[in-house]
Amino acid sequence: MTRPVVRFEIRGTDAPRLREFYQELFGWSIDAGSPMMGIMNIPAGIGGPEEGVGGHIRPAEAAGVSIFVQVLDVQETLAKAEAMGGKATMQPFDVPGGPTIAQCADPEGNLIGLVKQ
Questions:
Q1: Contact in structure between 24 and 86 (CB atoms under 8 Å)
Q2: If I label 55, which of 2, 4, 76, 98 is the partner at 20 to 30 A Cα–Cα?
Q3: 89 by DSSP, 3-state: which?
Q4: 35 lies in a domain?
Q5: Could you tell me if 30 and 19 are in contact, meaning their C-beta atoms sit under 8 angstroms apart?
Q6: Cβ neighbours of residue 92 closer than 8 Å, sequence gap 6 or more
Q7: Cα–Cα distance, 75 to 87 (Å, whole number)
Q8: CA–centroid distance for 107 within its chain
Q9: Buried (b) or exposed (e) across 20-58, using 16+ Cβ within 10 A?
């Protein structure tokens, strides 16, 4: 039986800055975190796939894990991320038979895939 992805983690040296970045960029409601561990929880969004999140594995020059977030306007979201200290790392393109995607990095360099809704 295939097991669904049920959680993700975003790590960085300035977690409060990352909290502000993701709240502003995607409208996420992120709590202030536990005083002991500093873990700030992000609740599940509305409109995601009922069966859970899918994923893929691909060859790359460096190891890493990325998240993909559904957005209304990929180009607008890239521009907003850059204005907030992120960086566009892949301009929008249409996946053959699939959605329009792009990619940016948060202020700590974590990669974020953007998927047009």
A1: no
A2: 76
A3: strand
A4: yes
A5: yes
A6: 74, 75, 78, 100, 101, 102, 114, 116
A7: 12
A8: 12
A9: ebbeebbeeebeeeeeeeeebebeeeeeeeeeeeeeeee
- 66 vs 1: CA distance, rounded Å: 24
Residue 80: CATH number of its domain: 3.10.180.10
How many C-beta atoms lie closer than 10 Å to residue 59's C-beta? 4
Per-residue confidence (pLDDT) for residue 57, from 0 to 100: 85
The DSSP bridge partners found for residue 71 are: 116
pLDDT band at 1 (very low <50, low <70, confident <90, very high): low
Cβ burial, residue 95 (10 Å; 0-12/13-18/19+): exposed
* Cα diameter, the chain: 46
Residues for the chain: how many in total?
117
- What tens digit of pLDDT does each residue of 51-103 get? 778 788 888 888 888 999 999 999 999 999 999 999 999 999 999 998 999 99
Query: Tokens in use for 106?
Result: 């948060």
